[in-house]
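Ticket #4471: structure export looks truncated?
Reporter: QA, pipeline team
Priority: medium

Steps to reproduce: submit the single chain below to the structure queue and open the exported record.
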Amino acid sequence: MIVPVKNIVDQVDLTPDDILLPMLECVVNSIISLQKSALPLSLRKIQIQVERDGFPNQRTFENLKKISGFKIIDNGPGFNEENFSSFDTPFSQTNKDFGCKGIGRFTVLAAYKEYIVRSNYFEKGKWFYRHFIFSSEKEIEEVKYEESNNEVHKTITEIRDCIIPFFSEKSALLISEVSEAIMSHCLIYYLNDALPNIEIFDTEDGKVENINKLFENVSKEKEREFFLGDSKFKLYITKTLKEGNRKNNYLYFCANSRAVGNGRNLRNINSIFSYPLMLDGRYYFFDIYLVSEFLNKRAYSARNGFNIPKERSNQLFSNFESITMQDIEEKVSEIIEDEYQSFVKDAKEKNIKKIASYINKKAPSGLSTLKIGVECKAGISEIKGEMTPYL
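Actual output as written to the record:
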């Protein structure tokens, strides 16, 4: 049975939140290629080149041009016969053990016209060079395949010509924003000490950022496990020193060793985490990463969401036969509250002071009673009642 590439690409549904997803898929492919390499971790390298062309209709404050494409360069094993055959096979199982579903390259074509590969590699005692173009219309076009005089492992993956208008219009991103997306998407590799050296380079202004150095600011705080029904979940709790304009703590749902979609603001799960964490006189923000085989099995093929119900249909009963996002988020909230009880106590006091301040400053003079409920968990008594403002 032959499945046309275009048919698969047409099934990929991308949202405005997925602007960098095609590039991230290529980066993860390079990481996996390097995991199969005999090179020590310190010698595994990836460079991401950001290419720009033209301004968006609405100029950014920084007056940035739109991103027209990316080049991802690595020194992995390259497109040898096994890897090329896997690339040519939809839903290939070759890299299943590394979390690959054989669909990432189709996600790229859902956003970009061309996926170009140039690979120099060593196989069966000889060096080879392979150059091919992958597209929805022409599928795989082999441009060149020959023996090579260049005895260096080097693979260049280039994606260019964005075909989604809202992707292109919203792509005028700072290199720091691209770096943050790579960090969030690939943090599990860092936590597992499997992250190669990654550098990002903006060809427009020459700015360079080293992803590994950015990770040095991330503290590997704790690891915790929990069960919902028979499904096991693992939390990686990290914290980052409060810098710049960051204002929120985040929870990331992961599948197959990478973050899926954007982080979930923890304040939307539990208002206690509306504040940064104070430790030893310094403020930090949480970045919490959740992994589970349950999540692996329920991630969409494009890895931009999960086939999991948002809420329990019956709020009184939950036997976890059908785990919901609500079940997961409540359990994570419970664990984090328990781990950081002193922070939780301080945060609750801040919330109560905010309520009192609101009553004193904002409550109408003619209001006789203001009903306020503040839910307090983790062993701290629940405060519920009626408060009468001063008249």
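Status: closed, not a bug. The export was complete when the record was re-opened. Leaving a note from the reviewer for reference: The longest strand covers residues 112-123.
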